Fold:
Amino acid sequence: MTALRARWLGRLPYREAWDLQRAFHEGRASGRAAADYLLLLEHPPTYTLGTGADEANLLAPAGELAGRGAEVLRVDRGGDVTYHGPGQLVGYPIVHLGERPDVVAYVRRLERGLIGALADLGLESWTEPGYTGVWTEQGKVAAIGVRVARGVTMHGFAINVADDLDGFRDIVPCGLAGRPVASVSGLAGRRVSIEEMVEAVVPHFVAAFGHAGVETQAAAYPPGSGRKDHSFEVDRLVAAGTFTPQGRAAVPLTVGRRLAGEPDRPPWMRVRADLGAGYRSVRGLVEGLELHTVCREAGCPNIYECWAAGTAAFLLLGEVCTRACSFCEVTTGRPGPPDPAEPERVAEAVARLGLRHAVLTSVDRDDLPDGGAGVFAAAIRRIRERVPACAVEVLVPDFKGDAAALGLVLEEKPEVLNHNVETVVRLQREVRTSANYGRSLALLARARRVRPDGLVKSGLMVGLGETNEEVLGALADLRAVGVDIVTIGQYLRPTARHRPIHRYAAPEEFDSFRAHGAALGLRCVEAGPLVRSSYHAGEERVAVG
Structure:
């Protein structure tokens, strides 16, 4: 008997969720993931038509619906047309049914699980002969449309939780004329939240399918309640110390005084400031070419080691970010236009340093139509022209889920495509402004599918309030969607205005993360208190071959 990993991911556009499903499906079918998954989401307004759907059941033109902010998609599931939107819980089971799957029996199990969940809310529901889904005295409350390939399921069910059923007015729901739809809240005579529905569904799903156990991780804030963004004026650190001909004095690892409630800094959280010739050479080159580095802008504790060794991680698109994540030292504000000469200067720096593995990252540029993807692509091309033997690793933002923007970068075939999930799903909205765990997983999944011969990488921080069990769950998720390399390091508060440090993970815990990742099948887990995304990046690439 296998275990189940249930993930309540919050709101995610349908296309991203579809790509995410495909990745988990491939992971389960190929054996990359040893457990089944239940992905639970909410979508923006979307109409989907199954493989056999009659387009006449879509009562409004697709263009008109698009003008109202709704997508219309033909998808690879069974069933007719249905609507997904805010206030509806959508479940995508990724379940291995064995070599000879009984699809009808699978659908019946889904129905039983949903009926049991509704019963826990005091609602009576049932199935009707000849139809799929769950019915009530007011109409159909849950639709089911599935696909099974290689013995593993995709797509699944949709439960109308909120009272707003306006989206169904533009279709013949499931192709059943004259059959109304109902909502859980309408049946209950009160507002039922999505989270309440999630809590009811998961145990009945486990019971229906006989899983050996369940690991549930959930987004902490209801999608309809507004994002918990962090907006504040960011302190720019001027480290204590004096300037000398050799450079600035050592920057303390944890900036400023320890906040009330923060743990004491342990002895292993120390670095030696090497301000020798190597460090000064890289600093002079970076300043001379008017480049930005994540080493400086993000206050990386490894700057002395890396610059002394003659390497740096280049920060594209300026030093001002359009987001204000609670862990990050990079300045938040309104950035200027991209510098068209920046890719050439980066390539010049790579050539002068003699790099064989260059790391490019950027601030978030939500103000640009492509999120800055074109600048990444240009920088890769310039490096290839100047230093053909140099491998390129890109640490990209999420591009707001734009697959075309990601495609611009992947077309240049970077050796490593890196995108950090940063933290576990429960803490995403506290820690990452305008980001989403599901979106990040979808980006990594898309990179795996588009560039099956490239390396896909991601990273996590610890010390933000997560549990070790949640970290292990995130490692399993990353492995399931096809990630090769994961970095795990200790969060360090940049200034007193940033998120406090919850704990310092001991070196033995990082050893445990590394061992667990290896057991899952991850090709490389670089874990340690001072590990950062670009730390020893070239060695990681060589290690995985």
About this structure: Residues 338 and 350 are 20 Å apart (CA to CA). The domain at 267-544 is CATH 3.20.20.70 (TIM Barrel). The longest strand covers residues 139-149. The chain has 16 helices and 22 strands.
